[in-house]
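Title: Comparing notes on inverse folding

I've been comparing how different people in this forum approach sequence design from structure. To keep things fair, I'm posting one structure and asking everyone to reply with a full sequence. Here's the target:
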């Protein structure tokens, strides 16, 4: 099925007319949502990882009343469907690329993963295939990847494809020794780092505490980036994230590409 046909099918499936503001397009609602009208100049980007298998919290995340960045794992049962739905509901889509960690089995990564034993060509081919499998993707982030993001050869090949396809790279920052950001700067690829995980502890009180920390980061620096997840505890994360505008009045909720533009304009 070609891209046009997939797009039409997805629009029918998710009820396009009921999910978008009348006459609006995804581009028209960028930077919208709670906090956009009475902005303090402060901004947050929330990324939700692990879409692609219709795991817990997927529906709730898709229906959040402000834009998020939806990180979709490639080659899974609903990767394309989730990407299409996110796009038509006004969210931003990126590829959540499985990458090798220091600990754990490679088999846990799923299909098409980037591992450090692959050749340069194989790394690039796998990244291209993943991008092609996730419609509307404008960036890439790493799923796991503590080992891969500390390997300069691996990252240069991943980032070469980002540059070729004009995509940004978000370092999930699973390894504080990651060289992804430095390498991206050297190669002229737009990139930034995650600064806070919202749901390492998958309980409502703990997630709420992390959201308050996110607010403190915004107060201190003007902008902040955080990552949450669908899956185990995904509904709790979605419920907590929905309350974020009330915890951060006047703060704009941005897609990651908008955050990159905002920081490029002089903020952190």
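Reply #1:
Here's my take.
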């Amino acid at each position: 099925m070609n891209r046009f046909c997939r797009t039409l099918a997805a629009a029918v499936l998710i009820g396009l007319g009921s999910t978008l503001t009348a006459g609006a397009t995804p581009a028209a609602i960028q930077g919208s949502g709670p906090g956009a009208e009475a902005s303090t100049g402060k901004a947050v980007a929330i990324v939700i990882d692990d879409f692609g298998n219709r795991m817990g919290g997927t529906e709730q995340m898709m229906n959040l009343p402000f834009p998020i960045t939806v990180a979709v794992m490639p080659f899974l049962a609903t990767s394309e469907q989730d990407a299409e739905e996110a796009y038509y509901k006004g969210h931003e889509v990126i590829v959540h690329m499985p990458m090798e960690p220091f600990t754990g089995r490679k088999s846990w990564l799923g299909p098409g993963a980037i591992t450090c034993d692959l050749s340069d060509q194989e790394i690039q081919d796998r990244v291209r295939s993943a991008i092609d499998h996730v419609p509307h993707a404008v960036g890439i982030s790493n799923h796991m990847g503590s080992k891969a993001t500390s390997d300069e050869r691996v990252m240069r090949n991943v980032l070469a494809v980002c540059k070729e396809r004009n995509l940004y790279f978000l370092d999930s920052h699973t390894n504080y020794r990651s060289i992804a950001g430095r390498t991206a700067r050297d190669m002229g690829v737009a990139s930034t780092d995650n600064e806070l995980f919202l749901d390492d502890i998958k309980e409502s009180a703990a997630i709420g505490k992390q959201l308050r920390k996110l607010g403190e980061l915004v107060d201190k620096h003007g902008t902040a980036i955080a990552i949450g997840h669908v899956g185990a505890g995904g509904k709790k994360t979605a419920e907590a994230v929905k309350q974020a505008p009330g915890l951060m009045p006047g703060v704009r909720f941005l897609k990651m590409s908008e955050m990159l533009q905002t920081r490029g304009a002089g903020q952190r």
